[in-house]
């Protein structure tokens, strides 16, 4: 099987390339070459997909599957799909459950109507752009298009640094604001499990949209933060604090305390997505502590300075605001 990953050097794209190698695929990546996949078995094709001739290096070969993780303007996805359709059997697009209207409804499944979007747009916002990317791929590849609507994605090489932020904060030690309740259910997917499912689903000829995320409650805040303490071997003390106290301290869920969305928050549905269709199609998710351990090992390899995406705001709470919240407990 011949796999082309558009990008392939960053978070999810790298996981797809890695899983392809593990599964015996012939793997190539296409990107500008500013970052390259470190495994010499991955063939590097140079090209900037934003240029009219940017995909030329991939057009002289035949591909069983193209995987695209683009999160910008959907018109870029449409141009790539049109260019590659003559030489590609199937096209998988990594989308997001953010395509469902906000605030997310608890139990939303693939039958829900996504936000309005167009395939050839030049960029609006993240949900609209992701939905436009879906439409672009489906318009060109039809029933040969696989749409993986991921939820919260964690794991090694995470460049939004949600889990890395928690690991680095707990590694510093001391009194740590731990947002409760401890048994708050979380929903997420490891990038490696997502990648493995995409390749397997494509091999089996699956198409259409799937909410590719764990079942709700596959982990809890206690498992997340306790796993961070265990992985880092930190002397940090977790101070479990209720949502009302955190709100009084002026701290925002999700952005300032990554991953955490408490009961009653308008975005709570992000941890309550119906993923039964993907599970029935073979999606399996590893335990949270394994993802935490492996992410910490990668952070150590990066000398505790994991790379951060420049197109997203850095997550995490200011130390002074954390101290203020702790003083209220």
Summarize the structure.
The protein is α/β, with parallel strands linked by helices.
Textual characterization of the structure:
The chain has 329 residues and is of the alpha/beta class. It folds into 2 domains: 2-150, 3-Layer(aba) Sandwich (Rossmann fold); 159-186 and 217-271 and 286-328, no CATH class. It is built from 10 helices and 13 strands. The protein has helices at residues 11-22, 74-84, 126-141, 162-172, 191-203, 221-232, 243-248, 276-280, 288-301, 319-328; strands at residues 2-6, 26-31, 43-46, 63-68, 88-96, 145-150, 153-154, 175-179, 185-186, 189-190, 208-212, 219-220, 237-241. Helix 3 links the parallel strand 5 and strand 6. It is globular. The relative contact order is 0.14. The model has no long low-confidence stretch (mean pLDDT 97).
- CATH C-level of the largest domain: Alpha Beta
Instruction: Tell me what portion of residues adopts beta-strand conformation.
Output: 15-25%
CATH third-level topology of the largest domain: Rossmann fold
Unreliable sequence segments: none
Write the element-wise H/E pattern from the N-terminal end onward. EHEEEHEHEEHEEEHEEHEHHHH
Could you give the distance between the termini? 56 Å
Strand order in the largest sheet: 3-2-1-4-5-6-11
Write down the domain tally.
2
Q: What is the arithmetic mean of pLDDT?
A: 97
